Amino acid sequence: MSIQIAKNLAKEDKVGWLTPEGLFIEAVEIGGQIVGLTLGRHEATALSILESHRDLLLELNLRRQQLGCRTWPDTTRFNLIKAFMVEQGYIRVAPDILNMSDFD
Asked: How far is residue 9 CA from its own chain's centroid?
């Protein structure tokens, strides 16, 4: 059911995260993203979401440090932030998910 909600949002060109409770949080557009130097909008929005979930943010930060990443943008090559959000039950919403089969 949740993946269908995410796909419907993606059909409307929405980009962001669908929370485990079904709330859509739009990803903020970031101008001038440079891979490895800045975060993409999904990653930046994820960190904003996690600011209100301190325990999860601390866990993610520990994983970052274990990978040897000094900054959040260093994690982009590992896809760490997005993978962590999916582990927590969030669904990434973007037009590219329209080509995926249902996976929940």
From this structure: 15
Q: Residue type for 60, please?
A: L
Write out 5-35 in H/E/C secondary structure.
HHHHHHHCCCCEEECCCCCEEECCCCCCCCE
- Residue at token pair 């999916």: 86
Gyration radius from the chain CA atoms: 14
| CA 23/CA 104 separation, integer angstroms | 17
Say which DSSP state 102 is in: P
Mean pLDDT, range 64-85, rounded to an integer: 95
HEC string of 38-80 equals ECCHHHHHHHHHHCCCHHHHHHHHHHHHHCCCCCCHHHHHHCH
Give the span between the Cα atoms of 76 and 96, in whole angstroms.
18
> pLDDT tens, 81-95?
999 999 999 999 999
pLDDT over threshold 90, residue 16: yes
Residues near 29 by Cβ (< 8 Å), separated by ≥ 6? 41
